[in-house]
Amino acid sequence: DQQVKQNSPSLSVQEGRISILNCDYTNSMFDYFLWYKKYPAEGPTFLISISSIKDKNEDGRFTVFLNKSAKHLSLHIVPSQPGDSAVYFCAASEGPGGGADGLTFGKGTHLIIQP
Amino acid sequence: NAGVMQNPRHLVRRRGQEARLRCSPMKGHSHVYWYRQLPEEGLKFMVYLQKENIIDESGMPKERFSAEFPKEGPSILRIQQVVRGDSAAYFCASSPTGTGDNTGELFFGEGSRLTVL
Description:
The structure holds two protein chains of two kinds.
Chain A (H helix, E strand, L loop, with lengths): L3 E2 L4 E5 L4 E7 L6 E7 L6 E7 L4 E4 L2 E6 L4 E6 L8 E8 L10 E2 L3 E6 L1
Chain B lengths: L4 E3 L2 E4 L5 E6 L6 E7 L5 E8 L2 E4 L8 E4 L6 E5 L8 E8 L11 E2 L3 E5 L1
Parallel strand pairs in B: 2-11
Antiparallel strand pairs in B: 1-3, 3-8, 4-5, 4-9, 5-6, 7-8, 9-10, 9-11
């Protein structure tokens, strides 16, 4: 029973264009959502987060949008750069920092930026 | 300011042996989480510990797995009598408080990759 779903295992985008990564969740108790980026043989690194009281959070080239009624969030990267090629994990929790149950992760989307 | 340190980075064990994975959280962090990533899967929560206390082990298999975070020293994830299905990357994360900081962020180590032959 996957509570956080990333339905696209991979996504290929041309350099300079917008990358849009999607994530759906089923647990209505989730109120904190995070995106992590992971390079091979490294640990995940935090990218951006959003709490359920907001519908948008922006940090430089990265923007996360949250649609609570649809239980959907997306990460926009614009413009996409070669260094953005990595696996992106969507994560959710019932409180900041993971709370007692930790973060629930999706399976990840492998973003490939084409030159 | 060192990040989360995990060792060993790679560990090979034969079936039936024991595996011990260590995690030193970031300086000033007293909350540690362990996650497991199986091939082609996302990270799955295993256990959440504070110093000398297990807060939540709901993601940990009931048998063969144990975790501790002693008053002194690193957190240890111990797997007894390993089987091939235990082969995975084990990630440790830490946070300064149980509620993380304002971003909700957990800080991850680089992982320990266990291979069971």
